[in-house]
Predict the 3D structure of the following.
Amino acid sequence: MTTITNVRTIEGDTISLAVETPQDRIIDANGCVAFPAFIDPHVHFRVPGAEQKETWETGARAAIHGGVTTVFDMPNNNPPCTTVARVHEKKKLIESQLQTAGIPLRYRLYLGADSASVDEIQKAKDLIVGIKVYLGSSTGNLLIDSQETFERICEIAARCGIVVAVHAEDESLMQQNVLRYGNADDVSYHSKIRTRDCATVALERALAATKKYGNRLYIVHASTAEEVAMVRAAKKEGINIFLEATPHHLFLNESIYPSLGTRAQMNPPLRTAADNEALWEGIADGTIDTIGTDHAPHTLAEKNQPYGKTPSGVPGIENYLALLVHAARQGILTYDKIVDLTRSNVERIFDVPANNDIVLVDVERSKEIKNSDQFTKCAWSPYAGMTLTGWPAYTILGKNIYPLV
Ligand code: DOR
Ligand code: ZN
């Protein structure tokens, strides 16, 4: 048994924690604040097919260092995770890599929707956390551009009680913009190709199907004020819709393009400071339910190519706790709200069983984010150079205590 003394609760009380470890020990937490360990409902750990970017060995280490003990992994792998057989194969690879890492990270997998394997959804229902639909193409080749197929998916998901997670960018609008700007060689065009209209038109499509079939709809990575307003209105109407925001759409905007270049390229793209503001308002009033990092590692060699050749995506899992706690210290949100966004709401929306995992956060510790300190295999962060106060000191996953400093 390990006794952890001198732990502060979010409410400000001082308590001790007991963890059932094989050895007897006492750890002085020195006033660290205990948060329920985070669940990241949106990661791309790249297995199988892109292990040069991330594996479950490196991804699990990054997660633990970010205070995360549960991840939901996306299906845009190579081959994409679109069948029951591929879910099983992927799980086998994951189990073996977690074994090597010595970290029993908790995880759930999304099934990817593609028009050839819609029938797999029902067969996979007890194996998966949800069905992921790309209404616009992104990394990988998963795409549902036909509304008819999308509606079929929503109908099956409603029947099976499965969450439909939607990447809401409209493919045909994007293709029109590609024709216009296809030769662009500057990353700022990314926001002109993947316009805010692409997001709102796709969200309209998702809402229309959900109104028809009554499935649970989870919109990933909201980027615009309009999406927040639309979801706010849809919730008032009683639609079963949930909204996720990423750390990068909350903390970064287009003004970072000159300094970050294609390291700031992701789908959907960065927007304006006013959109950052609208997302924070969505968090304050409960329109935004969760934070998903969309941890989408790509190597620097891949990211350093000219715009047009570069893949979209940024890593995020190991720094978002600090971004959120730092923001809370500045009065932008409360510790309780952090718990809602990173744990309680995720458990409720996806119906995942509760656990006792905890992250102990040293809310006084300031640290500069450096690429060389990252545990993700891609070894860089879009937040490099930022100094944040409030870092995880211990992550407790089941009976395992991971000291982080
Ligand atoms: O920026 C992104 N990267 N958006 C996505 O939708 C996919 C992700 C990836 O897998 O690289
Ligand atoms: Zn994603």
Observations:
- The pocket of DOR (ligand 1) is lined by residues 44, 76, 138-139, 167, 266-267, 294, 296, 311-313 (CB under 6 Å).
- The radius of gyration is 20 Å.
- The mean pLDDT is 97.
